[in-house]
Amino acid sequence: MAQYAIGVDFGTLSGRAVLVETATGEELASAVYDYPHGVMDQCLPDGTALPPEWALQHPSDYFGVLSETIPAVLEKAGVSAGEVVGVGIDFTACTVLPVKSDGTPLCFLPQYQHNPHAYVKLWKHHAAQDKADRLNAAAAERGEKWLARYGGKVSSEWLFPKLWQILNEAPALYADMDYFIEAADWVVWQLTGTLTRSSCTAGYKALWSKQDGYPDSSFFKALDPRLERVVEEKLFGPVLPLGAKAGEITALSASLTGLLPGTAVAVANVDAHVCVPAVKISGPGKMLAIMGTSTCHMLLSEKETPVPGICGAVLDGILPNFCGYEAGQSCVGDHFAWLIDRLLPADYRAEAERRGLNPHQLLREKAERLAPGESGLLALDWWNGNRSVLADVSLSGLLLGVTLATKAEEIYRALIEATAYGTRKIIENFRQSGVAVEEFYAAGGIPQKDPMAMQIYADVINMPVRIAGSAQGPALGAAIFGAAAAGREGGGYGSVSEAAAAMGKLKDTVYLPDKDHAAVYDILYTEYDRLHDYFGRGGNDVMKRLKALRRDVKGGNLPC
User: Fold this and answer.
1) For residues 264 and 249, what is the distance between their CA atoms, to the nearest angstrom?
2) Tell me, what DSSP letter sits at residue 383?
């Protein structure tokens, strides 16, 4: 009898599940559920306005993913729940929420439904930058050794700046919260009835390490005396390794999902990290870029080496027995969506409708006719701040070279090129630090549907680009971890690498660099690098001053 695993991927705007045959990796069915609340960055459901830089979600949407997508894939594939051996989930991170000791989110409680701090703080919630700045300054002044694992900077997107923001701005809510938890770990808790924390989310987003645990209480006390016991008070729960079983489907979650009680559930994972085994990467020197609204760059090494500006270096953080490195870009697909949503000319939109194309297809068609350098444009890819290597969300976008003759497709191509330059900057940063990057892989929505972008990436980084064999890379990866959690005795596999060998996949397509295009992009990248350092390393802090002025003028009174 065939056996299956289910992977559930919780993204920024939707959640999706995929049903995978464990013996072959064949994906039999997938289903998507759009979050009804989406990303709340203007106001709460009741109309309460949000200040700039906020990005929240509603945890009820996550229940919708479980109740809608899992039964849907079982029905589509004609597979019975008894044939499913394991379930894995992955999540955007750092996406965190305050809960009571029984797992109830504070935003579910009537007294907190009007308080923004009671909701899920999405990964791109950037309103805690001042807390991150103070945390980084204190860690550097104290010579905290763990800081080097994060490239010398802790991001405002991570757990402790967000938690500290709650303490400062909503101290009563902070006191009433029993735990602050990654949404990934919270969903696993809802499925299993047992609170666990993932070594991946803890390691990359909460400063935990396999060797030393969390930072010492004296550090938190130095930040704020009220934080001295923050780990003991708010981060309760054992940290479990990736590939392990967090627990089993309970009777309650079985009624929600249609799965059988006792089905194995894997320790939670992060959407980027979980993709590595999905493309059969099992060793060092192979970078995987998971490209969607943002991009995360995953890399394995046999040694832990300090690399400035990365998002973390965690032992066993991606695969066992390797140091897993993470870097990333905060805005990739969001760049292109911004152009279409805000600036696409009416005649372009009309042409797309007339020809039965979506706007991306039309702009891609027009942009493909352009040669590298032809537009005279150059952009910095910071529309949502810089994640690596500057780790500064106070930065913003830049488009240089615009004239009255500039066309929408030229801007579209320039934004794609900017994201490729950002990836090249990350690659060069690793190499300069002594961490090898010898091969490049791409997963996510953009590599699956945009050949032009992938060719631009190959030309800019001057490396072949290999493409994931699944359009649902994170969900496939989560299924692989689900199969490993089941274990051989449960119908799965004895390890993640064993499961990946059978279930992972790559396309035959490989994008090879064009040497003539690469030569032009070398020139353009040199200019990008100058702008990167001028605006990002203190040569001109105008971006930060403009953001500060915007905050002062608008304050918390944005129209909803």
Assistant:
1) 7
2) B
